[in-house]
């Protein structure tokens, strides 16, 4: 399989970044690349988990559905990040759904071929373990926000997490601007931080009036990162 821009796998922090060139090529040889439109469900919660996905371009959301059908968004994935690793290792059904929020390109690894590859290349197994640990830490942070913070700090913490992993123009300056690389609806943002769409709308409108951010057409730009950090740290 020929991949467009295979050098993108070399980016720091991506799944294959720590492997040698020969190992990278061996991994790419067992993968299939797919281009998928926005709104495509790549994995269904409860289905057999027989593939691992590496996001090449675009953004996906990881979500679960309650018994009543409510969607809860656990995380967002961008280029170099992976999905499906739990089922690949334990052989259990998918614990969450993976849905594209914009057009994406993904590398698809079948479970049997990947496990055989991992036996010969334990370095990448360590990378996957690190990914799992980082995801657990982010989930713990969201749980802390859900239980300990009021509406404003909860939404601020969620936005800061999103721009940390999916923001453009990240700068160390306290008041630097940062924009999300993908559009996000107020409903999805609410599902990510456990707030209603109405509360998200109200809070975003207040922050726009005070110049903390702009939000239009799903595109969010943080104009004052330090102000948002101050709100995120406030416990009523």
Automatic annotation (TrEMBL):
UniProt entry keywords in alphabetical sequence: DNA-binding, Kinase, Transcription, Transcription regulation, Transferase
Domain (Cyclic nucleotide-binding): residue spans on this chain: 15-135
Highest taxon of source: Bacteria
UniProt-listed Gene3D superfamilies: Jelly Rolls (2.60.120.10), Winged helix-like DNA-binding domain superfamily/Winged helix DNA-binding domain (1.10.10.10)
Molecular function in Gene Ontology: DNA binding; DNA-binding transcription factor activity; kinase activity
Cellular-component GO terms for this entry: cytosol
This protein's record includes keyword Nucleotide-binding: no
UniProt-listed PROSITE patterns: CNMP_BINDING_3 (PS50042), HTH_CRP_2 (PS51063)
Domain HTH crp-type positions: 149-226
InterPro entries with a match to the protein in the record: cNMP-bd_dom, cNMP-bd_dom_sf, Env_Response_Regulators, HTH_CRP, RmlC-like_jellyroll, WH-like_DNA-bd_sf, WH_DNA-bd_sf
Name of the molecule in the record: cAMP-binding domain of CRP or a regulatory subunit of cAMP-dependent protein kinases
Source organism of the structure: Kordiimonas lacus
